[in-house]
Design brief:
This protein is an all-alpha fold. The protein has four helices and no strands. It has a domain of 87 residues.
């Protein structure tokens, strides 16, 4: 087996879920009223919580960090970066628009998801 296969395996949940978000973001949008704007932020938060968990899972199992705090920060940052790229992608889709507030909701969702993952993981034991 190739040396990178174990690392790729731990990142598959993140890759698959990110592809799902990309596919949903590719759907054309319609008219947006205030109620949909508020609901939209909640959906972004809910949508990115699992992405945060997947990012933390990939980072944790890649053993890139000695602390869960560092893991949480990078996983949330990874979700924020993906959220920004998703907002750019949406700006190119007919009927959709980019919003920094959507990206902030994505970041918050990523923070929550990564935090949930970190809470239920024990710190690494290095000898």
């Amino acid at each position: 087996m190739f040396p990178l296969m174990p690392k790729l395996k731990v990142w598959l949940p993140f890759i698959i879920y990110a592809a799902f978000i990309f596919a949903v973001s590719s759907l054309p949008g319609g008219r947006v009223d205030f109620t949909r704007i508020v609901w939209d932020k909640a959906l972004h938060l809910i949508e990115y919580t699992p992405l945060g968990m997947c990012a933390a899972y990939g980072l944790y199992n890649s053993r890139l960090f000695k602390s869960l705090f560092g893991l949480w920060i990078l996983a949330a940052s990874l979700c924020f970066a993906y959220g920004l790229s998703d907002e750019f992608h949406q700006s190119l889709v007919p009927g959709r628009e980019a919003s920094i507030w959507d990206a902030m909701a994505d970041f918050l969702g990523g923070m929550i998801g990564a935090g949930i993952y970190c809470i239920f993981r024990k710190p690494y034991k290095y000898s």
